[in-house]
Design a protein that fits this description.
Layout (H helix, E strand, L loop, with lengths): L2 E6 L4 E7 L2 E6 L3 E5 L3 E5 L4 E7 L4 E6 L3 E6 L3 E7 L7 E4 L5 E5 L2 E5 L5 E5 L6 E4 L6 E12 L8 E14 L5 E6 L4 E5 L4 E5 L9 E3 L5 E4 L5 E5 L12 E3 L7 E6 L5 E6 L4 E5 L5 E5 L6 E6 L5 E6 L3 E6 L3
Antiparallel strand pairs: 1-30, 2-3, 3-4, 4-5, 6-7, 7-8, 8-9, 10-11, 11-12, 12-13, 14-15, 15-16, 16-17, 17-18, 18-19, 20-21, 21-22, 22-23, 24-25, 25-26, 26-27, 28-29, 29-30
Length: 324
Amino acid sequence: MPTVAPLDLEGHCVAAVFLNDVPHFALADGAINRLDNGQKTIQANDGLLAAFHDAANDRLITGGEDGKVFAVKAGGEVSELASVGKKWVTSVTAGPQGAIAYASGKTAFVRFADGRIKEFAHPRSVEGLAFSPKGMRFGVARYNGATLHFPAAEGKPVELEWAGAHTGITFSPDGAFLVTTMQENALHGWKLADGKHMRMSGYPGKVKSLSWSVKGKWLASSGAPAAIVWPFASKDGPMGKAPLELGTRGNTMVTCVACHPSQDVTAIGYEDGMVIAARFADAKEVLLRRPGKGAITSMTWDKEERRVVFGSTAGDCGVIDITA
């Protein structure tokens, strides 16, 4: 039976990640807690709205209502990367070659590793950001679609249109597909080689969590009483194929998914705080954590693939050791 080391914090956990194998928990008020020979707390933003785990550089990128963007590293090192003045930073992400992107209002910014910053203006507010794993390219989720920019080169962006409000965005690990979450209960996707649309609908709730499996063969999602897992192994992605439904629990909604780093398995977190792991091949389930106080908001696997760190809306966080 997996064991859980609990950590009760005050407030909504925005991100639960490992930095240098140390569990870190970023809360909505800007406090970053870590379990490092006891509980330790540092303050990054004054009011934290957005956080992104930059696994390649082993850091957490944060942005908040104070208009600042920080990098937080293991051991409590906090460095300011950028500022937008008195405006809110509503979205942050990290990309290749040490680049980061952040958004405020209708403007997206890219900060390169050497400190150079480029601005990208949009007609409507920028809702989500993601870098492609292939080349220096990033995508913006916006009203009525997505925009692709190439920040290291001059030239026009690529506009991908689809009616409705797009709130989040992700590239497949091979860079072949782009998927957005929507204000309505749906995902929308594009095959980037030819612009073909992929409609992924039928969710009873909003999709707030997405996770790609190893090599990008599957895309797991929240927003239903099961983890909805779409097949992306073929050249046309999930078109004409039914998704897997893993971990169905009556009317209890899935709120967070986190695919295993090397196996076709996903951790599934629910609105009542329960966490399970489910295997894609046969839907076999293992209970990782019994229900808690709040909905699971964030989960991350460690590099050794034996621990899962998790956070919730109620601040009941912790670390699951699946080898115990």
